[in-house]
Design goal:
Length: about 290
């Protein structure tokens, strides 16, 4: 009697990194967020209130074990960041508090579009160069921000039928240009039925292996990044050159900084997709083979 082969039941698919952190429905943004973490590039999240922007950034900092500062930019004074300046031995020093930025490894500027213009101006070097008042922030690695959609850019809360967000303004173009990754986050209606049920059932606690998985994916992305840069630099540069020309003709010119950033983002995004296993198999095989060789 011939033996009947038993059909193996495939193991259940593990949730994505962000879902493992307790944030459902963000799978499409996962490669961009991993790429930004791997390159330590600034992230700006844009979305209506209650869409888990702040929750995600807090969970990322906690999972990575970062010294984290969370500032509400709408009420921020610059002394809140640096401490109070006082003269000491013929020079100026800053009185430190647990909330000052000097020892931070990651910072979040929440409600950044409600920040007063003079404070926004002081954030330019902090976001782009990790410098405050001309002094380097030697420990700072990750600079994150979150905001509601500005008027004219989907600023109406369509889910609640509310008026435009009062006090929300378009972010200063020069400040926005310093964020490498500007990501529009999903709202409830964008999620699948299963994701909606998961969110509404309140199952948003991080999984026990979430920190280890995030750190492993981050390390793998960093390993793949140099080879991704080598493979894609010429094509990404040419793509960006052509795109910049077409956008300029359409009245939306890219700054040189944004164009250079876009090239680096393409390379980092590809490395992140390969690290996550979501890139096409041939692309993953090519990148990982060259790295292992």
């Amino acid at each position: 009697m011939a033996a009947t082969a038993r059909r193996r039941t495939p193991p259940p698919k593990r949730p994505g990194l962000l879902r493992a952190l307790g944030v459902a429905g963000w799978d499409a943004l996962e490669p961009a967020i991993l790429a930004a973490l791997a390159t330590e590039s600034p992230i700006l999240l844009i979305g209506p209130h209650g869409t888990a922007k702040t929750l995600l950034l807090n969970r990322l900092a906690e999972a990575l074990g970062l010294a984290f500062r969370h500032y509400n930019a709408s009420i921020l004074n610059f002394d809140d960041l640096l401490g109070y300046p006082v003269p000491q031995d013929g020079s100026l020093t800053y009185l430190q508090t647990p909330a000052t930025i000097w020892e931070a490894e990651a910072v979040l500027f929440d409600e950044v579009s409600r920040c007063r213009p003079e404070i926004q101006n002081k954030l330019f070097p902090l976001i782009h160069e990790r410098v405050a008042q001309g002094l380097p922030l030697t420990r700072l690695r990750h600079r994150w921000a979150a905001m509601n959609p500005p008027p004219g850019e989907g600023g109406e809360d369509e889910e609640a039928g509310a008026a435009l967000y009062e006090g929300a303004e378009p972010l200063d173009v020069a400040l926005a240009d310093r964020f490498a990754f500007v990501l529009q986050v999903p709202v409830l209606r964008d999620l699948s039925e299963g994701e909606q049920r998961e969110v509404l059932a309140g199952g948003g606690e991080p999984g026990p292996d979430a920190p280890e998985r995030l750190k492993a994916a981050l390390e793998r992305c960093r390993e793949l990044l140099p080879e991704s840069e080598r493979l894609l630099r010429a094509a990404a540069s040419e793509y960006t050159r052509v795109l910049a020309g077409k956008l300029s003709v359409a009245g939306h010119p890219l700054s040189t900084r944004r164009a250079v950033t876009l090239v680096r983002n393409i390379e980092a995004f590809h490395a992140a997709r390969c690290a996550l296993g979501t890139a096409p198999r041939a692309a993953r095989r090519k990148l990982t083979k060259d790295v292992e060789d």
